[in-house]
Amino acid sequence: QHGRVKIKSTAQQEEEKRKEREKKLKIYVAARDACFSKRKEGIWDDEALQLTQQLLSSNPDFATLWNYRREILMHLETVKDEDEVQKIYEAELSFLESCLKVNPKSYGSWHHRGWVSARLPRPDWARELSLCDRCLSLDDRNFHCWDYRRMVVKMSGVPVDQELAFTDRLIGSNFSNYSSWHYRSTLLPLLHPESPEPPSPCRKSPQTSPPPSPQTHSHRVCEEQLLKEYELSAWFYYRWLLGRAEREEMISCVYVSRDEERVAVAFSRPVNAQSVGLLLVLDGQPQRVEWRSVHPRFKHSPICDLPPGTISDITNEHNLTVHWTEKHTHRDCALYTGRTESYCRDSATDQELFRSELSVEKTSVLQSELQSCNQLQELEPLNKWCLLTIILLMRALDPLGYEKETLDHFQTLKEVDSMRSAYYSDLCSKFMIENTILKMEYAEVRVFSISDKNLTTLCHLDQLLLVTHISLSSNQLQQLPPQFAMLQCLEVLEADNNCIGNLEGLYHLPKLEEVYLKNNKISSLADLQPLASCPKLKRLDLRGNPVTQTANIGSELAELLPSVTDLLL
Amino acid sequence: MAEEESQFEEFEQIDFLRDRHVRFFQRTLQVLPERYASLETTRLTIIFFALSGLDVLDALDVIDRNVMIEWIYSLQVLPTEDQSNLSRCGFRGSSHIGIPYSTKGPGVLHPYDSGHVAMTYTGLCSLLILGDDLSRVNKQACLAGLRALQLEDGSFYAVPEGSENDIRFIYCAASICYMLDDWSGMDIQKAIEYIRGSLSYDNGFGQGAGRESHGGWTYCAIASLCLMGRLEEALSQRELDRIRRWCIMRQQSGFHGRPNKPVDTCYSFWVGATLELLDVFQYTNFDKNRSFILSTQDRLVGGFAKWPDSHPDPLHAYLGLCGLSLIGEPSLRKVHPALNITQRAFQHLQQLQQTWRDSTGSCSRQH
């Protein structure tokens, strides 16, 4: 009627389909059963090869059939002479090639090819490599092919630099070939057998042995200046190379205060206060003290109180030692006559907390890498990996010297990869805090000033145990987390113009006198509760916070914070 | 007028077409097109995708459960009278070997018949999804078959006759032991060593040592460790953080499986579930992920494809749904990220395991 083609009735169609399926099924079953009965009878002949070939052509993942073929081939090895065997295996390789043309990702086919190549009397590795070349030219990410190529290279003793040249060609034609880069990363250690394990983390469980130092390996590789390339694999490789080795666990700082009769301890790595097993020895006498963490929600960073009168007399000199019995390490601290406090600390530089010491050779290699990366960045201004690597190289070389460039690159990164801008903001915050700590140590002061740096998060607070004045003004902080309670020496806190709504960390800070929190997001009286635990708090600036709109805020605060004499609302 | 229509179309573009997907899976369970012939030996895995997909859609009522359960049991390789084939027991992928149909023992000895580790895994999952109590599964035989597949280096073959060996089959083995509540099926320590050895310098996992990092193998590694209950023991906090970073960097809009590869629907589950197991999935961008998955939805035939404007297939249809479930798509059931079945099926498993423990009167045999 409407020009539609007449279609066969459904029943007729169904019947035809059924007949066709049955025909196919008959052929399949016949071939399969023939294979199995031959195999069962131990017949390993050409017909068997034919039959299995037929079936495998349409289903190369029928593993049983590959196993049968292997049996046949192994049998033929025993009854034919070497030349004939060579021919048979070569035919096998041709057959496999046709299978791989149809399905280049068949596990069965690649597995079998590997088996065949290993048994061939006169293997032609050049041919195998050429197969890999062709396969990779069609799909350079085919990991089956890459795995096979690795095997071929290993078995044949193809020179590694020849393979490196191969990857050069691939990368030259396709810049973004991550698999080539990965392959390079496995080749380089072969060139330098004295280096530790190929670039992979340790194989044993983390508790039993320390990871191989990436620094040793990088020293070797960088010195050879083989890494001139700038692609994804290389970026990740760099990241790993420039990564920081695990720090030794030790006590990094001991602080003693006569006024509070308190001892505070900081470690090179976070350590659980309760379980850490510290022993305090005062003037040669072990003390019975209870170590606790500075904040109930934060288990690290232990402090303890000495019995009243132990060290309060300023005319007395005392020697303290804190023993970390588990790690067989300790720290001494002498409290001199006339001094109200004392401390003993390793600088962040000495501890290599933020970067490792570099040899002269390594420095020059990293510098040339940085130069090359910068050139690349001009060609590919939106390449986020390039930007990130430049940042990491700069931090490894000279964190303070490159501070401005680092900030600029982070800005670009956030625009280029906006989905991860929060991550970059936090990472940048971390680096700026590290720089400020370095500057503070260099100036030998106890003032930590980091305003107007777009800080989104706080970290390394364990390095600020001795800080007396801190300025965090004009940033984007949202909270002063429990870790903030580590700032046992803090007297003045400036944190105006942030987004702070949470003051959890201002908890039992014994010396805290002045707190400036103008233009933040403190919204309720409950938010200010922690301040009540700070006994010496005198000055508090809360202007520009929603909480100031609360009814009777003045009198509420007077009740909550009786020691505060100077209140700005 | 035309403008209105195209606006309506655009709105439809991001619509989730539940009914189409139900019909897609129904068709999968009835007949598969010829191009799937090469998957015949692994047919049970396709069944699993369809069944679990229907479960996620809360549409299991469209199939006849009993028929399916019987068919799955017909795939079990059972011990023979003299128990001489124990190391070959488990589930097979389909009837392609030609064993006569039978849902109960004793097993028939056939020289080339054996279980396949991925079929045993998907077979058990499928039975659980269908509400079966696994009472007809010969657990000891399955575990014996599993033990026979593990190599010295900790990895597993797929079949006792031999095949390639890698981290995928460790995941299947771990899932089997977890479901059967019996870890005597594998040497956990060796498996963990193999897994650790597969961790690449760039902090993803390869199929084995020295191989390229890949989202699928990373899922196998992390999910296996979680099922074994050894995640924090096998990997340090530093390593875990680095793995998190590698995984999170896989998101481009949807997720890809390896750097510089195009995004592919299935990785919304493989990488998404890994991130979920590592407790950081909430930091990914849900909107972009959802938009990508839905862009691969086939509006006519149902199901999802790996890329937009491509043909859908059961694997991507199922994993696309799982990817959506992870981000909380309203009409979908929640998926257990390590076991890759719905939470509902998982609860059924937990109840079963409780019954088993109560009846033996002892604690489960854990490692």
Q: What share of the residues of chain A does DSSP label as strand, in percent?
A: 5-15%
Query: Which strand order does the major sheet of chain B show?
Result: 1-2
H/E element order of chain B: HHHHEEHHHHHHHHHHEEH
The CATH class of the domain at 11-186 in chain A is Mainly Alpha
Based on CA inertia axes, which overall geometry of chain B fits? Answer: globular
Largest interface: chains, residues each: A-B, 51 and 47 residues
What distance separates the N and C termini of chain A?
86 Å
DSSP helical segment count of chain B:
15
Would you count the extended β strands of chain A for me? 15
Name the CATH architecture of the domain at 11-186 in chain A: Alpha Horseshoe
Low-pLDDT stretches of chain A: 194-232
CATH superfamily of the domain at 11-186 in chain A: Protein prenylyltransferase
Main sheet makeup of chain B: 2 strands, antiparallel
Uncertain residue segments of chain B? 1-12
- Helicity level of chain A, as a percent range? 40-55%
Mean pLDDT of chain B: 92
The description of the largest β-sheet of chain A is: 6 strands, parallel
Briefly note the structural class of the backbone of chain B. mainly alpha
Catalytic activity (chain A): geranylgeranyl diphosphate + L-cysteinyl-[protein] = S-geranylgeranyl-L-cysteinyl-[protein] + diphosphate
GO molecular function (chain A): Rab geranylgeranyltransferase activity; zinc ion binding
Domain Rab geranylgeranyltransferase alpha subunit insert-domain (chain A): 251-348
Family (chain A): Belongs to the protein prenyltransferase subunit alpha family.
